[in-house]
Amino acid sequence: MSQGNGHKQFLSDWEDRRLDLTTKVAVVTGAASGIGRATAFALAQKGAKKVALVDQMDAIKTFAEQANENLGREAMVPFQGDVTNAEFRHSVFEEMRSKHGPISICVPAAGFTADRLAVKMDRETGETDLYPIDLFERVIAVDLTAPIFWAIETVASVARDRHENEIKRWNPDERVQGCIIFIGSVSSAGNKGQVSYATAKAGLEGAQATLATEAIFHGVRCAIIHPGFTDTAMVRSMGDSYITEHVLPQTQLKRLIRPEEIADAICFMIRNSSVSGELWADAGWHPVA
Ligand SMILES: NC(=O)c1ccc[n+]([C@@H]2O[C@H](COP(=O)([O-])OP(=O)(O)OC[C@H]3O[C@@H](n4cnc5c(N)ncnc54)[C@H](O)[C@@H]3O)[C@@H](O)[C@H]2O)c1
């Protein structure tokens, strides 16, 4: 065999082991805006069979219509609802399964921040004001519990489908069957004013590391990306002066990351089966102590 053919053989072996997006049904939460929206579009552009777009905002329907027109095919299927609602979650999985096949790719990107100091103290009186526990619990519900359960339901969806097809433990000779990419954050390492959000994002690391060991039984990989400050509604809500004074000086690229750059990194993580664990896509951001 010539060296050229050998190289070709190597490439096709590698491609054969890659997750085949064109046969896959994906779900992206938080898909009406920012990172979720860019990721859903990138997945469809790269050929995903169908993408369930999940968001609480009505805008999800318009985005699906516009994206389908742009793509020239009905790849996007919108669902409006709250990611913390288990019945809503089941209904998304069931509708996609019955019409298009089991969901096997999951990017649970819906999230929000509720920032304030853990303890505020009145300098005059010494009175302390603690971070409200109900707010803390809501952040955990949306940013930690919900992504984990959308991911677990994805693993279950692949497991059930394999059982129905009488396929047992995943075999490395098969292609990878599915993939979950959690959206962490640079804040997972700790960030002033973000006691709830940082807790949620750090918690996702434990879920990722655990699901990675369990889900591969069914051929599903699980990884986490930690984006830095990305140009989305979430970051813009901090205000231009905060971004200029506190974010950009600590960012090596001296600019916000584009949501499409994070989407590109997520697609790479999904398609390249050798990638596991964590990817930091932070434009070189370092917090000031
Ligand atoms: N923007 C950043 O700098 C940055 C950095 C690191 C991580 N992240 C993470 O990336 C993800 C996407 O954030 P973004 O910056 O694109 O924000 P964004 O505000 O632009 O989009 C978040 C989307 O999630 C939806 N959402 C929020 N709560 C929901 C709920 N309960 N049910 C359904 N939908 C809900 C919102 O409606 C919105 O469309 C989040 O998990 C966020 O924590 C963002």
Describe the 3D structure:
The protein has helices at about 5-15, 35-45, 60-70, 85-100, 135-165, 195-215, 235, 240-245, 260-270; strands spanning about 25-30, 50-55, 75-80, 105-110, 120, 130, 180-185, 220-225, 275-280. Strand 1 (about 25-30), helix 2 (about 35-45) and strand 2 form a beta-alpha-beta unit. A 7-stranded parallel β-sheet has the order 3-2-1-4-7-8-9, sandwiched between helices. Strands 5-6 form a two-stranded antiparallel ribbon. It has one domain (about 20-280): 3-Layer(aba) Sandwich (Rossmann fold), CATH 3.40.50. It has about 290 residues and is of the alpha/beta class. The mean pLDDT is about 95. The chain has 9 helices and 9 strands. It is globular. The termini are far apart. Helix 2 crosses helix 9 (about 260-270), helix 4 packs parallel to helix 5 and helix 5 runs parallel beside helix 6. Bound molecules: nicotinamide-adenine-dinucleotide. Nicotinamide-adenine-dinucleotide binds near residues 55, 82, 229 and 233.
Q: Short summary of the structure?
A:
The protein is of the alpha/beta class.
The biggest sheet, with number of strands, parallel, antiparallel or mixed sense and barrel status, is:
7 strands, parallel
The count of DSSP E runs of length 2 or more, i.e. the number of strands, is 9
How many domains? 1
Which fold name corresponds to the CATH topology?
Rossmann fold
> What name goes with the CATH superfamily?
NAD(P)-binding Rossmann-like Domain
Residue runs with pLDDT of under 50 for 5 or more positions: none
What is the radius of gyration computed over CA atoms, rounded to a whole number of angstroms?
20 Å
Q: Tell me roughly what share of residues is in helical segments.
A: 40-55%
Average pLDDT score: 94
Question: What percentage of amino acids are in beta strands?
Answer: 15-25%
